[in-house]
Design a protein that fits this description.
Helix content: over 70%
Number of domains: 1
Strand content: under 5%
Order of helices and strands: HHHHH
CATH class: Mainly Alpha
CATH topology: 3 helical TM bundles of succinate and fumarate reductases
Largest sheet: none
Shape: elongated
CATH superfamily: Fumarate reductase/succinate dehydrogenase, transmembrane subunit
Radius of gyration: 22 Å
CATH architecture: Up-down Bundle
Oligomer: single chain
Distance between the termini: 81 Å
Number of strands: 0
Number of helices: 5
Length: 133
């Protein structure tokens, strides 16, 4: 037995065998880029292209804004990118805790459910606003 055999330890587990780290990273990076683009468009449209002092729209101006088809699509894309990027961030932080495979599957299911509910709720709210114009 050599000295190397005595001091050799098991290598730390860097990721779970079923980890889809590369695709999750690409989704995170892509949603982050989309988030920057759509957040910029949102801030400019909602706060800089306003006739009111202080850069805030009235309720009726927001309703008219959301009723525009192009703006509706931009705000929906903003909702999607915020939700995806945020939940992937939560997933990444929780996965660093090195939990069991069963817990990770439950985490993924819970985040998918939360993300779907968030997007559906946001789309319903924006559709209601757009219908009031």
């Amino acid at each position: 037995m050599s000295v190397l055999d005595v001091t050799r330890r098991a290598a730390p587990r860097l990721s779970h065998p079923s980890d889809r780290g590369a695709s999750a990273w690409l989704w995170t990076a892509g949603s982050g880029l989309a988030l920057v683009i759509f957040a910029t468009a949102h801030v400019i449209a909602q706060h800089f292209v306003v006739h009111q002092v202080g850069g805030l729209r009235t309720y009726q101006e927001v309703v008219s804004y959301v009723a525009e088809p192009v703006m509706f699509v931009i705000e929906c894309a903003f909702l999607f990118s915020v939700t995806i990027h945020g939940l992937l961030g939560v997933r990444s932080v929780v996965r660093d805790l090195d939990l069991s495979a069963r817990t990770l599957r439950r985490l993924d299911a819970a985040l998918w459910t939360l993300g779907t509910a968030t997007i559906v709720y946001g789309l319903v709210l924006m559709s209601v606003l757009a219908s009031r114009a």
